[in-house]
Amino acid sequence: MKDMKRVRRAGAALFLALAMAAGTVGCGSNETASETDAADDGERFQGEYIITADEAKELVGDDNVVFVDARGSKQAILGTIDGAIATTWQELCTCEEGKAGDENWGKIPEADDLAERLGELGLSKEKEIVFVGETKDGWGDDARLLWELAAAGYENVKMIDGGYAAAKAAGVKTQHLASKPEKTEVEIDEIDNTHVMTTEELQANYDDYTIVDVRTDEEYDGAVLYDEAQGGHMPGAIHVRYTDMFKDDGTLKPNDEIVEMFEAAGVEKDDKVVAYCTGGIRSAYVQLVLEMCGYENTWNYDQSYWRWCVVGEVE
């Protein structure tokens, strides 16, 4: 205001007009930036378990954050996020004995057992746990691990939208080889089965659920690609491919587009939705996404088709 008064006192009306014009342009620029930010928000997926690669970049080096490369230590040799430890979904499941399709294979371990495994990895409940994986070109292993930790009572768990590829493209600091975990004590009172579907429940009440097969076209149509006991799909299963949730760059499509896709396939928000794949990995990602999109009754069938095709009817 002082500058404007000096302009008036000098009688430089022209300069005042120019200043006002400049101010108008400035306001217009700010409004455009806000509108752009809003548009960006509407064009990306948003949910409590998802962070962007740029957000992940800001967390690297934070002592209160543990990055977990869900692709495993062998893949981390080629590159992983700086400071990340590595593990696989198999290492945190009942996969030590038997084979895929066996009665107790591929499930969440008992609470004490899981607590010990997580403690060995240094995954304290007091830390923010950020998972990194591979999305459309993989099976979404990061989601399977996040889904399991959520069932174990972890409240601050995230995964990077677009996985490692997005993180690397965003300039997140990387390293070769995973870091060594710092062991810690973990306590798990019980496993929360709110989003965990069992074979036994499906066998008893199959018709109560909307079953969604999230595998590829080949798998749904009967191809045996991963040592399944037989090909096909669960009876009446709606087919919505896991990969259809992602954009070309591997990040998730916006929430409304994903909802439209599932609704177009016949999956409504008030349905009791059970997602399955081959071993409960891709379907864990789908369950979490549906939950974040407002589907209130969703489950991941963790043993999935590997087990079902041994004990249940298929089409």
From TrEMBL:
Keywords: Repeat, Signal
Record's protein name: thiosulfate sulfurtransferase
EC class name: transferase
Listed EC numbers: 2.8.1.1
Species of origin: Dorea acetigenes
Organism domain of life: Bacteria
The reaction(s) this protein catalyses: thiosulfate + hydrogen cyanide = thiocyanate + sulfite + 2 H(+)
Pfam families reported in the protein's UniProt record: Rhodanese (PF00581)
Domain annotation Rhodanese: ranges: 61-176, 205-310
Signal peptide: 1-21
